[in-house]
């Protein structure tokens, strides 16, 4: 356990489904991130939340909707996804100026 | 524009020998560098970091070297062990919240 917990670990969803990924940290960090890792591609930053405000959105399609209700929790709401959205979705948290602590990820398969 | 580059997608090293993973960066504002290690189906885990005020940082079998004039850093693992087989990501920060990651290098340690 790294201190950043992601649930579920695995998710299979149809293209018309709505699901949510959850991330939780109790490390006292003030920033949280969503990354996407597809096969044979680098880590792609999706969203950054700092002090619960979204400070970065890297041209992510609107079918991905993040939510950060407080400094310890981060969600990624998914709807009408495409098969190419199948990937490992990683959550991370950090304190300003320090490195990230990653969760174990959610392996998402869109069928 | 890839600001952090790991030009070797893969590297094979014999057990007991030295593994050297390389990373180049283009942004002269980067002042903090990290290496992460990632096993399949898991999130990246922090390995070692170095601040731009240093040129070397050592932690057990792992040493990171920084050459600011060349904008180059490297991770040395000696002696290499089978459990070191993983994907290694180089990351850099300019003091702001966001880390920029390289594409990763897959290290395989052969018995």
Protein architecture, described:
The complex is a heterodimer of chains A (111) and B (111). Chain A is mainly beta and 111 residues long. Chain A has no helices and eleven strands. Chain A has strands spanning 4-7, 10-13, 18-25, 31-37, 44-50, 53-57, 64-70, 73-79, 87-94, 101-102, 106-110. Chain A is globular and about 40 Å long. By secondary structure, chain B is mostly beta strands. Chain B has strands spanning 4-5, 10-14, 19-25, 32-38, 45-51, 56-59, 62-67, 72-77, 86-93, 100-101, 105-110. The model of chain B has no long low-confidence stretch (mean pLDDT 93). Chain A binds chain B through residues 2, 4, 6, 31, 41-43, 45, 48, 50, 55-56, 88, 90-92, 94, 96-97, 99-105, 107, and chain B through 32, 34, 36, 41-46, 49, 89, 91, 93, 95, 97-99, 101-104.
Helix content of chain B: under 10%
Count of helix runs of chain B = 0
Strand content of chain A: over 45%
First-last Cα distance of chain A: 30 Å
Most extensive chain-chain interface: A-B, 27 and 21 residues
User: What value does the Rg of chain B take, in angstroms?
Assistant: 13 Å
Tell me the series of helices and strands of chain B, N- to C-terminal.
Answer: EEEEEEEEEEE
The pLDDT mean of chain B sits at 93
Largest sheet of chain B at a glance? 6 strands, mixed
| Gap from first CA to last CA of chain B | 38 Å
Number of strands of chain B: 11
In DSSP terms, counting alpha (H) and pi (I) runs of 4 or more, how many helices of chain A?
Answer: 0
